[in-house]
Each structure stands twice: as C-alpha cells, then as structure tokens.
Amino acid sequence: xxxxxxxxxxxxxxxxxxxxxxxxxxxGFAAVPLYNLFCRVTGFGGTTQRYDPVAAAExxxxxxxxxxxxxxxxxxxxxxxxxxxxxPTDTVSIGARDMAIFIAQNNSPHPITGTATFNVTPDQxxxxxxxxxxxxxxxxxxxxxxxIRMPVLFFVDPKIKDDPDARDIQEITLSYTFYPVDEGKxxx
Length: 188
Known about the structure:
Strands 1-7-9-5-3 form a 5-stranded mixed sheet, with no helix packed on it. It has a 5-stranded mixed sheet with strand order 4-2-10-6-8, with no helix packed on it. The chain is an alpha+beta fold. 21% of the residues lie in helices and 37% in strands. One of its GO terms (biological process) is respiratory chain complex IV assembly. Pfam families: CtaG_Cox11.
C-alpha cells in the first residue's frame, strides 16, 4: 500500500471516528429529553400524564367503572417534616375528576424548604393517571411548626379500559416523597 493510500485510509478513519464521537455527544445531550418524552408518551415507570387544557376541551366520559386510588406519603430522613394524606384511599369513577389532600408539617425550629417527587404504580396505570393540579416539583417553604394542606386534582383516563395490560387494574397508588431543597444544608 502506498503512503498516499495509507494517508487517505487514516484520514477517512479519523473522520469517521470524529463523526461517531460527535454523534455520541449529541445523543448524550438528547438522552434526558428523549427519555422524558418516552416516559410521558408510554407511562413508563409510572410517569403520569399532565393535564392539557387545550386537549381537554372535550371532557372525558365518566364510566360506571371505579378504581381504588391509594395515596402514599414519604419524607426523606434529612427533612424533619410530617407528611401524610388526609385520606389514605379513595374510590373514584374512571373519567371523573377527583381531589386528594396531602398535609405537611415542619417539625423543626426553623423554616425549611422541601419539594416532592411522585410515582404511580402499577407502571401500566401511569399513562392513564392525569394530574390536573399538583404540588409536586414546587418548592414548599414551611415556617417552624407550620402545617399546610396541599391539593392534588386528578382523573383516571377512560382509555385505561381499552388497554389489555391495564384494563383489569383495581388499585392505583399515587406516591409522593418530600426532600429538602438544599441537600447541602443539614436539616435539624
């Protein structure tokens, strides 16, 4: 092989390697938004749907079928709060809007800010569980001893009955976990 042919081959290999590296960097940046989109569309991992007022111009049909919704509340050990649902379960008509109330109380002698994440189980129910209003991912600052009531407005989409993997679900669990906003500060 001549020096010229070897140089061309090396240049082509280097260009291909650079293109591959650029594509991997691009995929690395796109991975999180693409994964979030995938979860929202499929309900993967119990990801709920977000209420879209434009798409909701047509009110979902309320079915005579019901489902039990269990409400679960957890608190990080680093957050000195008491957090619980006002009612641990509710039976809701599929398609009907409903509301649950969660209560949080700061048991520390100073103000603390927390934020909640959520999950829905079983995973197959996530894409049919639509939250209209929620306190999740919103920072909540509570003064010492302060207690607040936080509503969650939701409905279970009637399309759940058309899904062979989800139509027989009898109970859905909506679970929240509160964490301190600034993990660097020690809550006491």
